[in-house]
Write a structure and sequence with these properties.
9 helices, mainly alpha
Amino acid sequence: MEEALLLFIWAFFESIIWPIPVATILLGIVLKDPKNWFLYGAVTTLGSALGGTFAAYLGKLFRKKILEEKGFYWLRRVVGINPANIKEIEQQYQKYGTWAILLGALTPLPYKLFTWVSGILNYDLKKFFVVSLISRGILFMGEAYVIAVFGEEVFYKYFGTFENLQWVIFAIVAILIVYWIAKHSKDFSS
């Protein structure tokens, strides 16, 4: 049970500020106890989604400071937020934020960046949590499953790093989304 608690705490803080990916801890724990891969993937998912939602909340809480104070100029530059056109940026993020969160949650891009930006741009926290729970679930359950079923040797032989595995999972999800859209586009045009 200590492993599950460690994964939850690590995933929670990684989504806010912690620099070391929880996937590195997930790998070791699932290799040690592969029969509980589902539990470890689920706990990691929940910790990450809750931590991300907390970071988005902090982004909302400190929005005014981040957007207006000189000391946060570097942060605004890094994330591409210009206070002069914040309303337009917010409108675009409300429209396309789900895709941005999916991108941050499923790829090696820093998810924590998307968590804070979502809050700063007033993205709905409930929606953020749901999108994060689904996308982080796909990622961490996928990683835990691959490790549990194929083991360390196959993982390193075919993927090498978690970043490569993340890109593979992202590509599979992207293909499935494109397929679903293509299949259902007739339904939308009718």
